[in-house]
TrEMBL record:
Glyoxylate binds at Y55, Y161, R196, H293, R296. The active site is at H293. It comes from Kitasatospora atroaurantiaca. FMN binds at residues 108-110, 137, 159, 187, 269, 291, 324-328, 347-348. This is Isopentenyl diphosphate isomerase/L-lactate dehydrogenase-like FMN-dependent dehydrogenase.
Length: 401
């Protein structure tokens, strides 16, 4: 584990942003985007229309799991403590052997070009500028090598959709390593795409038009499975992508293949059951992301924050437990950390930020969330995310649920 101190600017930046936004009050200049990140979806929809925003906002079935994600966070309340000298705060955390300036990473989100033409490179630059890791999706609109170049000296984390074709997976891992990616996030909850009525009813499925296939279409192992080059038969290439990008046949035994082909940290994304968390630890994995894919896969599944304590109890001392699904505000970050997550990932809000203002929009989202989290931490009597425990929370009284 590295013990290097947090980058100097990191903790100060969120406080600087608090002042910058606050001092607008002297001139009356309002920010270009809402500082309440729960209002971004509505703003993005006005700008971009119902197709792309519907795809990002959408979830599985009738949205029960998305609501469960909110309910699972909302059922906890923070119990602030006073007179604890909170002038000096350090938001840094250690994750996967690396010190991060704050307990936040951008979740892998595919097809970002539907939100903005600058797509993944813009999100990657924003994340690097703020010192926050960007997890690049396998289903990105831009080939991984180009996104890696945009990441500069930021953390390079890659999310793998574990393809049916071994050679494609092997090739992705090799390319990712060559491009300088260090940690691998393997998403397990999407061996099939779920029933998503909003997309079906709008017939808006971007990858069926070839969006989000850049890593595949540029891959020699993928191309080897095509009768004609991609540009000569786009539909055949898209169908080939659809039938091989995921694999419902995988089992725990297959993890050995990834270990053999990746020498950095491996994190399993989409873990909800404590037994699965134990299997991940037994298989020598370095972390898990407690996540239900933002409610986009199993309708009726457990809210992610309701699954978090069980996973932390099962494996919190054996590997790093990360969390996503439903994080929207600073107090959500606080609650997830108090329940035992080491870091949270943010999904939809940064995609909306990208849609509204490109790289600057993503930076606005990161800075707003961390500024709010820093204030929540301080006002609740705490100075460091690593020291939060469930004692900082109380369960909402049953009659108010
Ligand atoms: C439009 C969209 C595309 C996504 N694409 C991927 C993906 O390619 N790989 C992946 O592991 N997760 C993907 N996810 C899931 C996110 O990584 C993350 O788990 C989820 O968005 C977190 O929930 P939140 O949006 O409530 O923050 C996607 C989510 C959205 C909204
Ligand atoms: O939409 C998603 O949630 C997702 O994970 C995905 C899968 C394939 C292509 C693009 C996005």
């Amino acid at each position: 584990m590295s013990t290097e101190p947090a980058k100097d600017w990191a903790a100060k930046d969120w406080a600087a942003f608090q002042y910058e936004i606050y001092l607008n009050g002297m001139t009356g200049a309002v920010p270009r985007m809402p500082t309440d990140l729960t209002r971004l979806e509505e703003a993005a929809e006005r700008r971009l229309g119902p197709g792309p925003v519907g795809y990002v906002a959408g979830s599985a079935g009738n949205g029960r799991t998305e609501r469960a994600n909110r309910a699972a966070l909302d059922r906890w309340q923070i119990v602030p403590q006073m007179l604890r000298d909170v002038r000096r705060r350090d938001l840094s955390v250690e994750v996967l052997g690396t010190r991060l300036p704050a307990p936040l990473a951008l979740a892998p989100v595919g097809v970002l070009s539907i939100m903005h033409p600058d797509a993944e490179p813009a999100a990657a630059r924003a994340a690097a500028a703020q010192g926050v890791p960007f997890i690049l999706s396998s289903a990105s609109s831009t080939p991984m090598e180009q996104v890696a170049a945009a990441m500069g000296d930021g953390e390079r984390w890659f999310q793998l959709y574990w393809a049916k074709d071994r050679e494609v997976t092997r090739s992705f891992l090799q390319r990712a390593r060559t491009a300088g990616f260090t940690a691998l996030f393997v998403t397990l909850d999407t061996p099939l795409l779920a029933w998503r009525p909003r997309d079906l009813d709008q017939a808006y499925l971007p990858f069926l038009r070839g969006v989000g296939t850049a890593n595949y279409f540029s891959d020699p192992a993928f191309q080897a499975g095509l009768a004609k080059p991609v540009h000569e038969d786009l539909n055949a290439a898209v169908l080939h992508f659809v039938q091989m990008f995921a694999d419902p046949g995988k089992t725990w035994e297959d993890l050995a293949f990834l270990r053999e082909n990746w020498d950095g940290p491996i994190v399993l994304k989409g873990i909800l059951h404590p037994d699965d968390a134990r299997r991940a630890a037994d298989a020598g994995m370095d972390g898990v992301v407690v996540s239900n894919h933002g409610g986009r896969q199993v309708n009726g599944s457990i809210g992610a924050a309701d699954a978090l304590p069980g996973v932390v109890k099962a494996v919190g001392d054996r590997l790093d437990v990360l969390f996503d699904s439903g994080i929207r505000t600073g107090d959500d970050v606080f609650k997830a950390l108090a329940l035992g997550a080491r870091t949270v990932l943010l999904g939809r809000p940064y995609a909306y930020g990208l849609g509204l203002d490109g790289q600057a929009g993503v930076e606005h989202v990161i800075r707003s969330l961390l500024a709010e989290f820093d204030l929540t931490l301080a006002l609740s009597g705490h100075t460091s995310p690593g020291r939060l425990t469930p004692d900082a929370l109380a369960a909402l009284p049953q009659e108010l649920l």
